[in-house]
Design a protein that fits this description.
The chain has 210 residues and is of the alpha/beta class. The protein has helices at 20-29, 44-61, 91-98, 111-119, 144-157, 175-179, 190-193, 198-209, and strands spanning 8-11, 34-37, 64-68, 81-84, 103-108, 124-127, 164-167, 185-188. The protein has a single domain (8-209), classed as Alpha-Beta Barrel (TIM Barrel), CATH 3.20.20.70.
Length: 210
């Protein structure tokens, strides 16, 4: 089942400037069509309180809501998909658990990982880190633009059709060279939600990608 995958995916995080709900609301008001709720610090009740509020915002603005991990919450809120950060996860098993209608994304920092994700039926992949980021600890080598060029070229040679998004320390000035590599899009967080004007930052990212 072919899924809608947005070229600019905004990821919420625990930051002092804005709650997850505020981040989602600001991003959607700026035109966001994809919100990934990433919170690994709350219990299920707190998570569902956030998710239900963000789901209502996404519904109002026509945005897709993706939740990082927490697949046990499937069916308990209006969630369109899940992004699994565990690079060793069994995505065949996860697909059977969640069903075909749910969008499933995975993470990778190697070409081999991307190939495995494609073979196990994910709908898209976050590939990184592009550059240094404090948002999500990752000791993998930085890919840089050349890393994406090589990976996309290899996927095309193998005729693997997988939407790949650059993630990890991507700034506005990085978008043009990254998109020229043939990647599908960008997943961004701190460059947007920690900007002085979050709404303007989102709009600038969107305009550069689209």
């Amino acid at each position: 089942m072919k899924k809608f995958i947005e070229k600019l995916q905004f990821i919420t995080h625990d930051i002092h400037q804005h709650s997850h709900i505020e981040q989602a609301n600001i991003a959607c008001s700026a035109g966001a069509k994809w919100i990934q709720y990433r919170c690994l610090t709350k219990n299920d009740e707190e998570l569902l309180n956030d998710i239900n509020a963000i789901a209502a915002i996404c519904d109002d603005w026509g945005a897709t809501l993706i939740v990082t991990d927490h697949i046990h919450l499937n069916g308990k809120a209006d969630i369109q998909g899940f992004h699994i950060e565990d690079m060793d996860a069994d995505f065949v098993k996860i697909r059977k658990q969640l069903g075909e209608a749910i969008t499933i994304g995975g993470s990778s920092n190697t070409l081999e990982g991307l190939i495995r994700l494609a073979s196990e039926g994910v709908d898209y992949a976050g590939f990184g880190p592009f550059f240094t980021t404090t948002t999500k600890p990752n000791n993998a080598p930085l890919l840089g633009v050349s890393g994406y060029e090589k990976a996309i070229k290899a996927l095309k040679a193998k005729e693997i059709d997988l939407p790949v998004l650059a993630v990890g320390g991507v700034t506005l000035s990085d978008i043009d060279p990254l998109m020229l590599t043939g990647i599908f899009g960008i997943a961004a967080s701190s460059a947007i939600n920690q900007a002085e004007d979050m709404r303007a930052a989102y709009s600038a990212f969107y305009d550069s990608i689209m």
